[in-house]
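USER:
I wish I could look at a protein chain and see how it folds. I am handing you a single protein, as its sequence and its fold in token form. As I understand it, each token names a local backbone shape. I hope you can help me see how the letters and the tokens relate. The protein I mean follows directly.
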Amino acid sequence: MILIKHGYVVTMNKERAIYQDGALVLQGDRIVKVGKTAELEQEREYDRVIDAKGKLIMPGLINGHTHIFQTLFRGLGDDRPLSEWLGECVFPLSMHVGYEESHAAMKLSAVEMIQTGTTTFVDSHFIHHDKKAIDGIANAALESGMRAVLGRTAIDQGPAPERLHETVEEAAKEAVRVIELYHDHPSGRMKVRVEPLNETVASPEMIKAMFEVSKHYRVGMNMHLAETVQRVKSVQDRYQMRSVEYLHDLGVLGPHLLLAHCVWINQKEIHLLAETETNVAHNAVSNQYLADGVAPVPAMLANRVTVTIGPDGAASNNNLDMFEVMKSAALLHKVNTLSTTALTADKVLEMATIDAAKAIGLEDEIGSLEAGKKADLIMVSLDEPEMIPAFSPLSHLVYSAKGNVVTDVIINGDIVYENRLFTILDKEKIINKGNEVIFSLLDRSNAWELTKKPDWPVY
């Protein structure tokens, strides 16, 4: 057993209990007890005792939506709207992404996510001209020690390139393959969800087929929805319905479903999400970066829609730091509504922890520090300049901190980051490999033009 003591413990349990001089007891991959240091340190002899004095202990952050492979494209699609960003950057480079590239992207992403406090991520992988590309992500995630929720994504119609298209039958077969290989993996750290990519590149047949796979195998389902006004208009022109209404008409809304973005939805659609208990992943930074618009998150929350947050891919953010995502989300909705309480620090923390766990059906396993739950937690230094004065540590987590305040990360009971040093991953080796892979990608795709920036003199 491991005792972690003398920490400022933010549990995120139902009572939102906080222990100012708190402690946790871990055994294997589980939390055994949470309480006051004075009580827990006297209970027994422990195999290891960790002194967390001067640190805040909280549940690991949950990245509610990302595209791991796009870490390789960071900074290459700057200042383009979504359609151009996809057409000029993401799709051309993706034609050369296979197993090796995905594996390298996952390792790079793991380094970045772990050292900034993310313990679980929800991925959306739609690059399947190499069917084993997703296996590269899965295997690298297993090697990294992270908790992964793999989204096996499918496309069967334009405007995505033909090489990324699959037949409905092919997509269903491959989804089943990935589920059988990785869902409920023996590591205890991996789930699989299916995903028709969005309402314009996945046909009604593909959406319904992925829903049937999800239902049969009892796995969740993801989808991008109403990310841009153009996509909503396309659905309206084709089906005389808005995007959420369209999914409702197909019969696929429900608590199993996590919808990324939902920027262009109206009040009627919000009510449909609430009535069906459908979940939403909000991507505040990405939506600003690509000038998509502002999702009506305060209205969703007011109607009891479960909303989580994520950075989206590192090519439209351009990092995976959930602390920056939390701050950006809070500030975006304050200024958009002209209300300082539109999205508060405590609510954003819920969206990045316990609400995120609920959105992916894992609220009984992760998202809070409680006896019986998985031992996924992070420690944050309260002795950094940006965390002083320490009168309001919860506020500081959202409005002051960046990922560099994270000192320790435990996932599934394993210490993967200790005193700002990795215990499993070789950071230098992973960065070198990442550079090697992206240079090769640029060569093979003849895309070096993407690296050019403003015509400023460089000496």
